[in-house]
Amino acid sequence: MGTRSAGIDLLRIIGIAAVVVGHVWGGSIARAAIYTWHVPLFFILTGYFWTRGRPMADEFRKRWRSLGVPYLTWLALLIALLVVADAVTGEVADGTFGDALYGGTAAVRPFSAFWFVSVLFLLALAYRALERFPAGVAWAVALVGLLVAYLAPPLVTAGPLGLFLVPACLIFVLSGRLLRQLRPHLSVGAGAVLLALGAALVVSGLGTPLDIKAGNFGAPGFGVLTAVLISGGLILLAEALDTRIGGGAARTINRLSVCGIAVVLSHAAVLWVLHTPSSGGWSHLAAALVPPWAFALVALRTPASPYLLGANGGGRR
User: Is residue 44 domain-resident?
Assistant: First the structure.
């Protein structure tokens, strides 16, 4: 297996922390700083580290172990938590259980981020299916999906598990693949330029925040472009850190990164228990980050790891 990139693992950690921050603070500044790139980053990384030619059955098994199993495990755990909470307090809203099972946009706290995992799972399978066709076919599917999202957000958010969001999100996977193809010609300086261009679009107001779960892909064209520029710049800069991160630090970063999916799937439960408002405080952020990550680090050393954290290999995708 290939050597993991400590810089990319660090970027994943930052991206996961940004997801949590976005669920704690909902102000305009936080949205401009985070929602312009944090979810697209992971779709772009999927394309950037894509392995061509993998059979569909192997792709399904890989994504099932890394995404599907922890999704179902945390779904079962949180539903059990809700059952107990409802029996004790009776305050669980009607329809919560059905919405959780339907997933996608319908699932709210404590399942706020579940849509992302299911969409990533379906997105990988969709791109694998499209890989057999000329590249233009996948781009056409992505552009049509994006157009539908701009014209009819309620339509793309209506599917179970976020299924109808997949075509539009494909634009990010394809952008990641394109970045990978261009990578030999790009330097660290290019990463800084991409990041600066993305930031300039945000400051100018052209690069508006994306709320993909709600079917919002930002200002037509500019929202996606901003996400790609910022994510691409971050990836190039992160890779440049590999030579600067020593063995012990790299191993710690790797462990934290591997635990990330547990944080993604569990942090909203902490916010639900705390009744965190739309704009929470530093204590809410600490509670949503530290205990879930600490729990995941402990789970990493137990037989429950494949269920709670997924089967994460030592190499790249």
Answer: yes
Residue 35's domain comprises 6-305
CA 267 to chain centre: 14
pLDDT digits (tens, 9 = 90+) for 193-251: 999 999 999 999 999 999 999 999 999 999 999 999 999 999 999 999 998 998 899 99
Nearest 5 degrees, angle CA 164-CA 167-CA 168? Answer: 95
Tokens standing for residue 216: 């919002």
| Side chain identity, residue 24 | V
173 within some domain: yes
End-to-end CA distance of the chain: 10
d(CA 182, CA 180): 5
Tell me the CA distances in angstroms from 301 to 31, 208, 304, 306, one per residue in order: 35, 41, 8, 10
pTM: 0.95
- Residue 120 in any domain: the answer is yes
- Per residue in 106-135, pLDDT (tens digit) is 999 999 999 999 999 999 999 999 999 999
